Amino acid sequence: MRTPLVLTLTAFALAPAGHGADAAREAGRSFIYVCEDAGAGAYEAFPDVCRLRDGRLLCVFYAGWEHVSLPDEARPNGGRVSGCYSSDEGRTWTSAETIYDGPDDDRDPSVVQLPDGTILCNFFSLRKTGDRKWEGLGSWLVASTDNGKTWSEPRRIAEDYYCSAPIRILSDGTLILGLYRETGDDANGAVTLSKDMGATWSAPIDIDNGGLRLDAETDIIELADGRLYAAQRTRSESMRYAISEDRGKTWSVSKPMGFPGHCPHLHRSPEGVIVCAHRLPNTSLHYSTDECVTWSENVIIDEVGGAYPSMATLKDGSILIVYYEEGAGSSIRARKFRATKEGIQWLEW
């Protein structure tokens, strides 16, 4: 569980070290490492990846020393947002760079590049209030207008809502970001909209949870008919979905997707298949060939259980997926596959 207020820590076994596609082949691994140590304490988690206009891939992620890395005397800034770049379609990655490192625990970043070239990285922050205690500071973003060389000061998106998914660009140019919040014993998903390329954001628009607490971690995809589909996390029951027919202004009551999962990430393949990657069981995905009306059986991506997956389409039409391990020394992993109406085909590096 990784909402702003409640966290469950679980340890998983880690694979041997080694970077890049060549190392993966030599070790007989199906995955590569994007980053094993960003220099903040060797705990890397919650990745997100996007394609940049110059052809590179940018993977952003949380870098700290444990699941919640609150500031202390030796490390006064707590966890930070880091990033690695790939110029060869994910086969190798640069050393980690710091994207944002404020005075709090800055975590769960996601990234998108806008049509004008601006890169937006959204995340949320936790402020230390006592020994292993914190308060949430809401969702923020930083921007780069020089292809990631420098980043702006942070701007708040929402004060009492949190983000675990990237900003999505709708076909009419509107930006939409999935959010979630806790209110006492309840929790629900939400969205916020921007009509000015992220300069300002609407007040959060809540999604009716249908009477079931939804940790949500909401992600959004635009369907072929223009409607919006919001996937939302539950604790153990089937994940929930909601539909908007007015570009995110209002939403249907959340209904079961048909399978459990945490931290959903939605991606459309070049063949028109929609993939929903998630945690539980381990790191998994389901796919839909009918615009999210029905979903496939579960497909295991990896036996590690950190997840928080993210996907980007590669130049050959295959899909890169990044995710994390969890546990001491957690690292960012990546695999690649094709998603067609015939199913999922895993590809070797």
Describe the model.
This protein is an all-beta fold and 349 residues long. It has a single domain (20-347), classed as 6 Propeller (Neuraminidase), CATH 2.120.10. 2% of the residues lie in helices and 48% in strands. The chain contains 1 helix and 25 strands. It has one helix at 20-27; strands at 32-35, 43-51, 57-64, 80-86, 97-100, 105-113, 119-130, 133-144, 155-158, 168-169, 175-183, 186-194, 205-206, 216-222, 228-233, 238-244, 255-260, 262-268, 274-279, 283-288, 299-302, 307-313, 319-324, 332-340, 343-347. The strands form 6 sheets. Strands 1, 22, 23, 24 and 25 form a 5-stranded antiparallel β-sheet that branches. The longest helix is centred in the N-terminal third of the chain and has 8 residues, at 20-27. The protein is globular. The two termini are 32 Å apart.
Give the SSE layout:
Blueprint: H1 20-27, E1 32-35, E2 43-51, E3 57-64, E4 80-86, E5 97-100, E6 105-113, E7 119-130, E8 133-144, E9 155-158, E10 168-169, E11 175-183, E12 186-194, E13 205-206, E14 216-222, E15 228-233, E16 238-244, E17 255-260, E18 262-268, E19 274-279, E20 283-288, E21 299-302, E22 307-313, E23 319-324, E24 332-340, E25 343-347
Antiparallel strand pairs: 1-24, 2-3, 3-4, 4-5, 6-7, 7-8, 8-9, 10-11, 11-12, 12-13, 14-15, 15-16, 16-17, 18-19, 19-20, 20-21, 22-23, 23-24, 24-25
Under CATH, the topology is which?
Answer: Neuraminidase
* Rg: 18 Å
Percent strand = over 45%
Secondary-structure element order, as H and E?
Answer: HEEEEEEEEEEEEEEEEEEEEEEEEE
Number of helices: 1
CATH class: Mainly Beta
Shape: globular
Give the count of structural domains. Answer: 1
User: Structural class of the secondary structure composition?
Assistant: mainly beta
Distance from N terminus to C terminus (CA atoms, Å) equals 32 Å
Strand tally is: 25
Low-confidence segments, given as residue ranges, are 1-17
Mean pLDDT: 94
Note the main sheet. Answer: 5 strands, antiparallel
